[in-house]
Amino acid sequence: MKEIILIKDGELALKGLNRRSFEDKMVATIRRRLKGLGKVSVERAQSTIYIKPIDEDFDFAEALDRMGRIFGIAAFSRACVCEKNMDDILEKAPIYLADTLRAIKTFKVEAKRADKAFALKSPEICREVGAALLRAFPHLRVDVHNPDEIITVEVRDYAAYIRGGQIKGAGGLPVGTAGRAQVLISGGIDSPVAAYTMAKRGLVLNAIHFASPPYTSVRAEQKVRDLLGRVARYSGVIKLAIVPFTEIQEEIGKHCPEDYFTLIMRRMMMRIACRVSENDGCLGLVTGESLGQVASQTLPAIASTDEVCTMPVLRPLIGMDKEEIIAISKKIDAFDISILPYEDCCTVFTPKHPHTKPKKGQCEEAEKNLDIEPLIERAIAGIEYSYIE
Ligand code: ATP
Ligand code: MG
Q1: Within 10 Å of residue 261's Cβ, how many Cβ atoms?
Q2: Cα–Cα 20 to 30 A to 22, which of 103, 113, 217, 258?
Q3: What is this structure's pTM?
Q4: What are the residues facing 160 on neighbouring strands?
Q5: Among the atoms of ligand 1, which is closest to the Cα of residue 286?
């Protein structure tokens, strides 16, 4: 029996005139994500996208799995292709739906007749298919108000399709519809979740990571790559910049008051991230900060880092509890990587009594003996770029 995947878009329906370009982005993403699974056609008609395998050995299960990670898809389903006549529909429906129907007690049939020339009208299609399913599965009952499963028969231009319930999609907006931003990625739990959350709103992601060898190890860098790999399953390819940060941390240690170490370090990260972003066409930064979580995430501390930023800083986790963040981390399979115990540059030099409520001007004063501009230039010159898929 030939099977296809039917895709409905979600929030796209709200976008009026932009709808077409949003759909184009989504179809392009779908085509890209289906690469390597076998020959397939992707077509669009009346707010539905049809994925039709052409190769016999097309990897259907993997395709379904990947469709669940494409933003912009609200729901999708697998469907059986029939000839456009009732004999074929009535023969295939009980066979194709057998597993689904054995597991439930009540159902209802809905019909969509895009081809108005089809011999039967929608209510007649429903009646005949419903009767055939009741004959084949006598334990079933029809419940039009609250069925366990809705069976849908669609009669379209070249074929008819039978399908059971829908699978929930990843939601959000297609990647690429909101421009590009740079996520500051650490090896922790929060920043990969922040990256995923913003990709879900349509952003293409670049990533920047500050590494402090030899205080931080190659394994810590690999952890960051692995985490971004989890995000890339949703967001698509991510350009990663790894910035050598050791010299800057050592210089802060030498020339600035100890209790300002973290604040000044974060200001340096932000300055460099903005500079790199401008070169790479990013319009904003993304961090995994959550208000009050640690000393550097108080409102005055956040204000002191924002002071040195030349672009908006998006903090999608700002109002979330750790449990909520962990739930998303687990959902995207990042959690087990995040909790591996490799050191981050932030943890290496943490002061004993960090300043949490800097007043305006105090950070400038504390960093006045730092030779900021040459440090930034050297760090940027030492960046290593790679692409994570
Ligand atoms: P995370 O779990 O994301 O590491 P955290 O709760 O440990 O966050 P901090 O260490 O204060 O919090 O970092 C706050 C944010 O700063 C991170 O979410 C991340 O966006 C950014 N950040 C921290 N360390 C680095 C790093 N080494 N490279 C790039 N960005 C970093
Ligand atoms: Mg951290």
Answers
A1: 20
A2: 113
A3: 0.91
A4: 82, 155
A5: 20
